[in-house]
Design goal:
single chain; alpha/beta; Aspartate Aminotransferase, domain 2; 14 helices
Length: 392
């Protein structure tokens, strides 16, 4: 059956965000009339005249293609390639652009897995990294080298949720011939669309907000077609393809992104305001709070402030662990962006691979707790936190 995509990029951009979540990139006519795109559980496909070879490892089956076109439309970008995990998207993108002898600028305070990749694996490949303060554009030029190829940042850095000068990052990259890459996982395409701010590429862990149900691992690279095509080619060599059934689940989960993230934006802000009023809490890190150092910038850049926050408990690690044990609704588990609220200590989970000195330099103390807000009733989560703190 011959199919075509339901709308081109220009038409998709003219639609509302929630309409694009449902309709962008879908196949027309539907496959045998199925309203929901079926799982194409096939590793190989019949060769067709004048059509590229379709093969599961290349990530270009119908499930991959529809999902990628939808994600590109959501961020107003030219193309997207989906991957088997967020780290597959990060590592393959970087290793497509960088080679031995190259140099990159990277934001200080990245996700622990990315930090380890850049600081420990890349030097073994002969790739050098220079850390930058994403809030101080005036310091970046001094770190440039003739071999500098790209600049890498995050829309919100976890677990302190700093928001760098993202517009300056994209402008600096253009002015100096660098590729600009941003990990947009924590903001999601609802709250921030990097292509609109002239970033070359954005990366997502689809495991998080895009899927929203804590039941798959996935990743995505979205942006300029020139780079996405090259990354997809390299990905086929590295073998980091997304399974078709996982692509189906991500496609399904993505359709509720708008209603989920809007609720999580609102719920997280109310919870952050509550925690900030509690004497047992030393500090709350959430860009929606006026007390956050990057609140003004986040307000200007983002539609919402995200569904994840962190807070520091008086008494350090022991008090933080006691609080988490006493909570009845959030699950003590890694990850974020799903329907269930999750809680963990970054020093023991997401940033456990860093040394104590590295964590201290990042401002990650042992009593820091990260709360990924789910879809439970906000007031129930606040009451649960209140009783856990009171028992302390």
């Amino acid at each position: 059956m011959q199919t075509k995509h339901s709308s081109n990029r220009r038409q998709a951009l003219e639609q509302g965000f929630d309409t694009k979540l449902i309709h962008a990139g879908e196949l027309v006519p539907r496959v045998h009339g199925a309203v929901t795109l079926p799982v194409f559980q096939s590793a190989t496909f019949e060769l067709e005249d004048d059509q590229p070879v379709r093969y599961i490892r290349q990530g270009n089956t119908p499930n991959h293609t529809v999902l990628g076109n939808k994600l590109a439309a959501l961020e107003g970008a030219e193309a997207c390639h989906v991957t088997g995990s967020g780290m597959a998207a990060i590592s393959t993108s970087l290793l497509t652009i960088l080679s031995t002898g190259d140099h990159l600028l990277a934001q200080w305070g990245l996700y622990g897995g990315t930090h380890e990749l850049l600081s420990r694996s890349f030097p073994k490949l002969g790739i050098a990294v220079e850390w930058i303060d994403a809030n101080c554009p005036e310091t970046w030029a001094a770190k440039l080298r003739p071999t500098t190829k790209l600049i890498y940042v995050e829309s919100m850095s976890s677990p302190l949720f700093r928001v760098g000068d993202l517009l300056a990052v994209a402008a600096f990259a253009r002015a100096n011939g660098l590729v600009s890459i941003i990990d947009n996982t924590f903001a999601s395409p609802l709250n921030f669309r990097p292509a609109e701010s002239c970033f070359d590429l954005s990366i997502h862990s689809g495991t998080k907000y895009l899927n929203g149900h804590d039941d798959i691992a996935a990743g995505a690279v979205i942006g300029r077609r020139e780079w996405v095509t090259k990354i997809a080619h390299r990905m086929s060599h590295f073998g980091g393809a997304l399974d078709p059934h996982a692509a189906f689940l991500l496609h399904r989960g993505l359709k509720t992104l708008g209603v989920r993230v809007r609720y999580q934006n609102e719920s997280a802000l109310k919870i952050a305001e509550f925690l900030e009023s509690q004497s047992e809490i030393e500090r709350v890190n959430y860009p929606g709070l006026q007390s956050h150092p990057d609140h003004a910038r986040a307000r200007d850049l983002f539609l919402g402030f995200g569904g994840t926050l962190s807070f520091e408990v008086v008494g350090g690690a022991a008090s933080a662990e006691r609080l988490m044990r006493r909570l009845t609704l959030p699950v003590a588990a890694p990850s974020l962006g799903g329907v269930d609220s999750l809680v963990m200590r970054p020093a023991a989970v997401s940033h456990a691979g860093l040394t104590g000195a590295e964590r201290a330099a990042l401002g990650i103390r042992d009593g820091l707790v990260r709360l990924a807000v789910g879809l439970e009733t906000t007031e129930d989560l606040i009451l649960d936190l209140a009783q856990a703190l009171a028992d302390g």
